[in-house]
Design goal:
The structure is a homotetramer of 333-residue chains. Helix content of chain A is 31%, strand content 21%. With 333 residues, chain A is an alpha+beta fold. Chain A has a single domain (5-332), classed as Chorismate synthase, AroC fold (4-Layer Sandwich). In chain A, strand 9 and strand 10 (160-161) form a beta hairpin. The longest helix of chain A is centred in the C-terminal third of the chain and has 24 residues, at 303-326. The relative contact order of chain A is 0.17. The interface between B and C is large, with 48 and 48 residues. Strand 12 (238-243) of chain C pairs antiparallel with strand 12 of chain D, so a sheet runs across the interface.
Chain lengths: 333, 333, 333, 333
């Protein structure tokens, strides 16, 4: 009820403060008998990890995942899967001056207003670090729906924008998840410059989902687009959600809008129609700027690391709706 | 679980097909002892009703609300409040040709794919008519949080756009919920023309929420912005959600973005900070166009009637989070 | 959240005060395409209705069920099914003296302590009349699991006790649901005498469930026995729950207990094993006694009317667990 | 949804197989600012631990609890509290012969029927070992409701029965939780003899709850008695639940039953009335008997160790209902 869980049949519960002992996730509702590959899980975590690229925070963490339950002899048991990651690189003393400091745009002040007590060493639960638990959840969600393909990438950073046709799921996403070599190089240079200047940047991440079966999503409050919106807006720094190009589509006359089914973004009435699903997500620039950003262990732009998290959230939503629909398979087919 | 409920402590469950016997709502979690005024409820329903303005569908319905439970001697009992509205104007025969027709952008086809059976006389549960149940829920939600002010209005229709500073909650919203006399007249003329031509239009609705107490919203999945996003994207035709000007804010450098707190849209870390909350919602144009739109009982643009529904959804989310936080008041203060 | 719903995938929400406008139920999670027979529904309601037998309250109600949503052309739509029953026979004036009276063993006083406001004309939500909404829910639950057989009957009233082997589901349950002609006649005479004297009686209801598939129920908190216990203890006047003869079985040495599988009551580890499920439920005598009971419209013993309600609750629990398990059918088989 | 969570506002999710890496619990909905004392937690765990008394299994485990999240500087943060206990004494090889053996009365066979895959080394999730996670949850629940007193003890073992008046919460419960010196000695001797013979015994545990505020519990499905019943029946081997002496009370005439309020067991209409709450729980004898019981690491009777688990479950239910009611405090008082 305190909102650390998401999903109905496939449900993840995350726990852990950014500077506590460990972060982790409990995945309930996993089917039994699915093969679990720890190397694949480690690879997903590495995609999100800090320190992978020089445009990121210098905070290097190993993020070694330990599976505590729910897997036996390499296969899921159908019981809750719990995975934890120890915080090995806490260096709390770095953060002592923050005890009395509320960073704008962070949850620091609102956490105090809400609870009257907080772990001042970091963002607590509101930290970007919490998202590693979501990536773990996403890995297991993916095992439930192996036939559906998820592909996210950066479409905009600051005033830079990817152009051209939509990306195929097999293209190389490059070193920072921008699937265009020239633009990627430009943005890398821009972000390095941001880091030097203590500046930061936001942008837009796009996700494409292919091969989703038709009929997923519920007709009223649990429309698939609604559950996607909730999942994405629950990400730190995410401030906008759009089915395909929603804010442009909104300006189109009905005759134009309905002439091409791609404006529907793969959903009609909130239910999948079998077409490609396309979602776009706006992320604001990190609030940490100036001297603090130059000195500290901060990302000038979180988008490169957000890409695998967006995929994870999409997988979690789809696995949940897949199981929800499966409950009725014997009746509706 | 089939997604006809929303909210945790303050929870509404809606029911009814657009052309069935009745639509309605069960409101569970209502505090006891609150005064209920049927006239106020009727006024809210009238704001959403068809036939209020010549730019709307000619389908005129009375939408008379009947309270079946939960209210005694003019006050809530703390038990479920159930309100129904009979469908008095079904005229099913009008819809017979639709039996084999799947309207693009509607749930017609996806409903058949999902259930293998549908009420072809209308949109069923995916119909805009379902939203009257949400308006009823919103009226009762408003009683839980009387100190919080909600004000929604149309910001864009097609290529028309409201300019100037944000609107005060006391301004006149005009005949179609555009709080600018000149623009309102222009858009009314435009929509009349759409109706003649069988064209349709989408746009953007903005909602401002004032006097929300700080500390509402949960730090992870149930961030207030996430629950707002879900509530809004659960509306038919809603395809985009934005905290303040998200897709523009995403392009701002951190130094600019964090220089003005209004870019935070009243929430930090997903929790209210006491500032004004501003959300923007993109709606696509109705898919019904051409001869069918000219002949039928359809809105060329749903935005004027969506405004009270957006307010209702915002109230439902806020009432729920207010009660959720209240559970901890004795501990956290 | 205020506890007017039960079930996860198959979920019913009941509403209505005993002396308000109407009582009813919303059934969410119903599969689409199932044939609905209003006559069958009416028959189930009649089994629970007052005034069917002279040992009952003289309060005669028609309990005409009206289906408001979720059924089209005789089949379920997969959308919420809402059914209401108007309270035609309220006669509120009969209850005016009760305004200041808190009946012992009823919710009268605790309702005031909890809410500070109540509908004094009857038991409000805690009334036995609320159970008609459960019978409606049970009818629809039964459509989901047509192959499972439910058979409840009275095993004890006061000091009278049914003896002999377990009852076959096809035997005649007699006029008051005691499947033994001689005992039934004795108890009818006893209850008539109770009515004359203003006395009341409690007892035990047994339910047998046959042909349940193996594998239903979840291993930890949602064990099938746990969900049955909750469902049954949620009935007014129900104060005890027992898997088979629990309180006798508890005294058996393990060597005797495990020698016969019938002591397991059809569940091992809280999961069905395919055997017959047997549950026994203790109900206390109505608290209304003396002059009030002689004068009023009260049952000296509610057990004869509780039998169909017990079956309904069992069906609701089983339909829910059946759907929950179905979600994993494609993985686990 | 797979049933590894219980509670609404105060919710625990348990995880871990009896012979996996670790067991644990996530507690969501804990208020912030409450003092956490690891020694108190360890003491509760020790009460449940095996090897405390010679009548128990010889399987000695340390059950060292590690708090991974949610506590900072000795106080709760309001974030999820996760506690794990490593399985240090797995000795899986002892269990190899069990791979193909389904123990009667255990979940072994039903787990295979349900999932098609299981951890044959022990009871998996259905093991009594899972209950240590509940004891941890109960410790934290107790911090939420420090004014309410919980006292459980053994009332019956096999044919031995505690007599005399109800026990005060301050009496010594003796070495095996039987608060009567003579009876305790008799039962200890009896259980030692059981162990020698490979026999096992069940019985009845009683719990008394004092100082509960009036008004807790919801009027329909979430009656307090219903949530207690679910919580208790979710315990392994628990097969019966009774409010006070339900199955005896059921035989009393209404005139006798309602003459003494103690028959109501502290609840009227499912809501606390401020009186002492008394619940009785039947547990069957362990199914493991004969040579296996003599050789193995098994309890001839689980009741002595179940007592702290029963208290934990009661605390979890009460903490949840206390918070649920608190959400409405500002309205109803």
């Amino acid at each position: 009820m305190s909102g650390n869980s998401i999903g109905q049949l496939f449900r993840i519960t995350t726990f852990g403060e950014s500077h506590g002992e460990a972060l982790g996730v409990v995945i309930d509702g996993m089917p039994a008998g699915l093969k679990v590959n720890p190397d694949d899980l480690a690879r997903e975590l590495k995609r999100r990890a800090p320190g992978q690229h020089e445009v990121h925070t210098s905070r290097k963490e190993e993020d070694a995942a330990e599976i505590l339950s729910g897997v036996f002899e390499g296969k899921s048991l159908g019981t809750p899967i719990t995975v934890i990651v120890r915080n090995t690189n806490q260096r709390s003393q770095d953060y002592d001056p923050l005890k009395e400091t509320y960073r704008p745009g962070h949850a620091d002040r609102t956490t105090m207003l809400k609870y009257g007590h907080r772990d001042h060493r970091g963002g607590g639960r509101a930290s970007g670090r919490e998202t590693l638990a979501r990536v773990i959840g996403g890995y297991f969600a993916g095992l439930v729906i192996p036939g559906i393909s998820f592909f996210a990438y950066i479409e905009e950073v600051a005033h830079f924008r990817l152009s051209g046709p939509p990306r195929d799921h097999s293209v190389d996403r490059g070193e920072i998840n921008i699937p265009d070599e020239a633009l990627s190089a430009t943005v890398v240079a821009f972000l390095k410059d941001c880091k030097v200047k203590g500046e930061s940047a936001g942008g837009v991440v796009t996700i494409s989902i292919r091969n989703a079966p038709a009929g997923l999503g519920e007709p009223v409050f649990d429309k698939l687009k609604a559950d996607f919106a909730k999942a994405m807006l629950s990400l730190p720094a995410c401030i906008g959600f759009s089915v395909a190009d929603a804010f442009s589509t909104a300006r189109l006359p009905g005759s134009v809008m309905s002439a091409t089914s791609s404006t529907f973004g793969g959903m009609e009435g909130g239910i999948t129609n079998g077409d490609e699903i396309v979602l776009k997500l706006a992320f604001k620039a990190p609030s940490t700027i100036g001297e603090k950003a130059k000195a500290g262990r901060h990302d000038p732009c979180i988008l490169p690391r957000v890409v695998p998290v967006v995929e994870a959230m999409a997988k979690i939503v789809m696995a949940d709706h897949f199981l929800r629909q499966s409950a009725y398979d014997s009746f509706h087919s």
